């Protein structure tokens, strides 16, 4: 019988989960009792589910992950969890954790990831709780975790319990008169089997061979390395030379594992000479993706979602289950809305955060969704899914026999183009960022800009039609989520959106999103930055972003 100790602790006041879990610097999690407190708060918040049941633990392989996995095992045993399903070495992609929760009918899961944020002793770590549907916990649960964390005075731990999480197997212990089981499972096997059920691998394989399609995929030294090897190399026959940065490293080899044009520049550069026809990058935990065509032709995530929505019949999963509806986050450009209209399918607009798609999927109203932040996925799980997106794109290529660029051009010909750009101002002074948001909130409240015309530095004039702070009423459980981003809607339908990121770990990150619709095909060929220059200038005039933050240029442009 293993001994349980009740350890006194002092509560922390900063354990409020953000857009997707608690993300902080590693050094914050290394403070005595910091990690134990947060995990204990999770256990207390969802006590009933766990006491009788099973939870899954996995992470993106970043620094601190193995130690925290052991701590979770010790806390779970002492908190009367019946069974833990742990990924081998604690490493499992976020989409794979979502799948495993659903496949084994677990009561929830703990994902150790700071997603696309850099890793290593001086960088970021994160802990996220997922519910029984496999998706990120909604605010009702994370608020409860936070409330408990603010007054926690002790945690229960079984300090002498150690499991070798490097070895697959079932380990049993007697704790507090009950049996506690830890099952260490293969990190990729279940996920790969599921992908084979969803997609027609033989058709993709045949197309790659007959068209001699050249692919280049980078895992940016994140969790996706073993999945890329298993799916792309072993199943689809890609040579090892097509799989870049595929060894998960605790610090991602110094890379910032965020699949965008700035942080995945190595992929962009490698594709520029036209040797490769299709490229993809994943983030640290494997839920985000970036898709590139020949010569590094960039597929904007809003367009990626729309093109997939337009071709779902290529994928066996949708032929079998049908398509119930589409959704996107509010800042995502509305390209997919036009496809929904054409196909007469329901379309939903939710706040930023994958957790908002879960209810719609559980209610059978949503099949495909995506976000401008490089996330796409379907109701096969309850997280966005990078590898799923790559396989979906390859299915479309195999079915249509078109190139990536041709698919986009044809899409714009049929639907027009929703030009989109996002400017990120990372690590701004929090006070300055909040002052800018307060200025914008005041403009919403006093309505002084409505019906006003503003002329950009380029000479183009826009009239403000409406300004609001996005509010969402969940169509299923009627939960109201307010203040999800300041929107400026202009009279030609163009939009400017401002919000503060909920995933950063230092200072505040301002996100400025701009989009505009263009129907004339000849104009769809122009560059997004040229098309949106005037709107960006209007955005700076309205927000006084440069004056508030002192920033002349963004850190990242999408
Ligand atoms: C998370 C959420 C996404 C969200 C993204 C960015 O992704 O799951 O829904 O779009 O953060 O959020 P923010 O703009 O607040 O930084 P991930 O990949 O970081 O887990």
UniProtKB/TrEMBL annotation:
<dbReference type="InterPro" id="IPR005845">
    <property type="entry name" value="A-D-PHexomutase_a/b/a-II"/>
</dbReference>
<dbReference type="Pfam" id="PF02878">
    <property type="entry name" value="PGM_PMM_I"/>
</dbReference>
<feature type="domain" description="Alpha-D-phosphohexomutase alpha/beta/alpha">
    <location>
        <begin position="190"/>
        <end position="292"/>
    </location>
</feature>
<comment type="similarity">
    <text>Belongs to the phosphohexose mutase family.</text>
</comment>
<keyword id="KW-0413">Isomerase</keyword>
<keyword id="KW-0963">Cytoplasm</keyword>
<feature type="domain" description="Alpha-D-phosphohexomutase alpha/beta/alpha">
    <location>
        <begin position="15"/>
        <end position="154"/>
    </location>
</feature>
<dbReference type="InterPro" id="IPR036900">
    <property type="entry name" value="A-D-PHexomutase_C_sf"/>
</dbReference>
<dbReference type="InterPro" id="IPR016055">
    <property type="entry name" value="A-D-PHexomutase_a/b/a-I/II/III"/>
</dbReference>
<dbReference type="Pfam" id="PF02880">
    <property type="entry name" value="PGM_PMM_III"/>
</dbReference>
<dbReference type="Pfam" id="PF24947">
    <property type="entry name" value="PGM1_C_vert_fung"/>
</dbReference>
<keyword id="KW-0479">Metal-binding</keyword>
<protein>
    <recommendedName>
        <fullName>phosphoglucomutase (alpha-D-glucose-1,6-bisphosphate-dependent)</fullName>
        <ecNumber>5.4.2.2</ecNumber>
    </recommendedName>
</protein>
<dbReference type="GO" id="GO:0000287">
    <property type="term" value="F:magnesium ion binding"/>
</dbReference>
<keyword id="KW-0597">Phosphoprotein</keyword>
<dbReference type="GO" id="GO:0004614">
    <property type="term" value="F:phosphoglucomutase activity"/>
</dbReference>
<dbReference type="InterPro" id="IPR045244">
    <property type="entry name" value="PGM"/>
</dbReference>
<feature type="domain" description="Alpha-D-phosphohexomutase alpha/beta/alpha">
    <location>
        <begin position="305"/>
        <end position="415"/>
    </location>
</feature>
<dbReference type="InterPro" id="IPR005846">
    <property type="entry name" value="A-D-PHexomutase_a/b/a-III"/>
</dbReference>
<dbReference type="GO" id="GO:0005975">
    <property type="term" value="P:carbohydrate metabolic process"/>
</dbReference>
<keyword id="KW-0460">Magnesium</keyword>
<dbReference type="GO" id="GO:0005829">
    <property type="term" value="C:cytosol"/>
</dbReference>
<dbReference type="InterPro" id="IPR005841">
    <property type="entry name" value="Alpha-D-phosphohexomutase_SF"/>
</dbReference>
<dbReference type="InterPro" id="IPR005844">
    <property type="entry name" value="A-D-PHexomutase_a/b/a-I"/>
</dbReference>
<dbReference type="Pfam" id="PF02879">
    <property type="entry name" value="PGM_PMM_II"/>
</dbReference>
<dbReference type="InterPro" id="IPR016066">
    <property type="entry name" value="A-D-PHexomutase_CS"/>
</dbReference>
């Amino acid at each position: 019988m293993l001994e349980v100790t009740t350890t006194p602790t002092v509560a922390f006041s900063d354990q409020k989960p953000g857009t997707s879990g608690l993300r902080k610097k590693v050094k914050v999690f290394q403070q005595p009792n910091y990690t134990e407190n947060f995990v204990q708060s999770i256990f207390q918040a969802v006590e009933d589910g766990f006491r009788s049941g099973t939870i899954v633990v996995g992470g993106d392989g970043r620094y601190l992950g193995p130690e925290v996995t052991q701590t979770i095992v010790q806390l779970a045993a002492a908190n009367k969890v019946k069974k833990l399903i742990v990924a081998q070495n604690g490493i499992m992609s976020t989409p794979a954790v979502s799948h495993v929760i659903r496949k084994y009918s677990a009561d929830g899961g703990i994902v150790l990831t700071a997603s696309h944020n850099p890793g290593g002793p001086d960088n970021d770590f994160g802990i996220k709780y997922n519910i029984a549907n496999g998706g990120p916990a909604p605010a009702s649960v994370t608020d409860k975790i936070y409330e408990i964390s603010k007054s926690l005075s002790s945690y229960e731990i079984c300090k002498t319990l150690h499991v070798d999480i490097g070895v697959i197997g079932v380990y049993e212990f007697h704790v507090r008169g009950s049996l506690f089981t830890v099952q260490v499972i293969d990190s990729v096997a279940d996920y790969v089997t599921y992908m084979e059920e969803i997609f027609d691998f033989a058709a993709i394989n045949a197309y790659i061979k007959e068209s001699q399609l050249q692919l280049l995929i980078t895992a940016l030294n994140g969790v996706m390395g073993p999945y890329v090897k298993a799916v792309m190399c072993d199943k689809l026959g890609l040579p090892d030379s097509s799989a870049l940065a595929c060894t998960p490293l605790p610090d991602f080899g110094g890379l910032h594992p965020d699949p965008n044009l700035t942080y995945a520049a190595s992929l962009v550069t490698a594709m520029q000479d036209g040797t490769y026809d299709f490229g993809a990058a994943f983030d640290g935990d494997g839920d985000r993706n970036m898709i590139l065509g020949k010569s590094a032709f960039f597929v904007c995530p809003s367009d990626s979602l729309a093109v997939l929505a337009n071709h779902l019949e290529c994928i066996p999963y949708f032929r079998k289950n049908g398509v119930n509806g589409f959704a996107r986050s509010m800042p995502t450009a509305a390209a997919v809305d036009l496809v929904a209209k054409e196909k007469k399918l329901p379309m939903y607009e939710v706040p930023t955060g994958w957790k908002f798609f879960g209810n719609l999927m559980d209610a059978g109203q949503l099949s495909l969704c995506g976000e401008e932040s490089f996330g796409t996925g379907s109701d096969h799980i309850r997280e966005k899914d990078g590898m799923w997106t790559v396989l979906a794109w390859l299915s479309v290529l195999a079915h249509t026999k078109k190139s990536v660029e041709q698919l986009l051009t044809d899409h714009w010909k049929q639907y027009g183009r929703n030009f989109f750009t996002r400017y990120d101002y990372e690590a701004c002074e929090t006070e300055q960022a909040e002052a800018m948001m307060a200025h914008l909130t005041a403009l919403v409240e006093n309505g002084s800009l409505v019906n006003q015309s503003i002329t950009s530095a380029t000479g183009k004039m826009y009239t403000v039609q409406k300004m609001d702070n996005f509010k969402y009423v969940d169509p299923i459980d009627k939960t109201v989520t307010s203040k999800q981003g300041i929107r400026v809607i202009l009279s030609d339908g163009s939009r400017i959106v401002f919000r503060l990121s909920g995933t950063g770990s230092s200072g505040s990150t301002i996100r400025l999103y701009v989009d505009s619709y263009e129907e004339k095909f000849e104009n769809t060929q122009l560059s997004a930055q040229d098309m949106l220059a005037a709107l960006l200038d209007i955005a700076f005039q309205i927000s006084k972003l440069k004056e508030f933050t002192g920033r002349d240029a963004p850190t990242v442009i999408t």
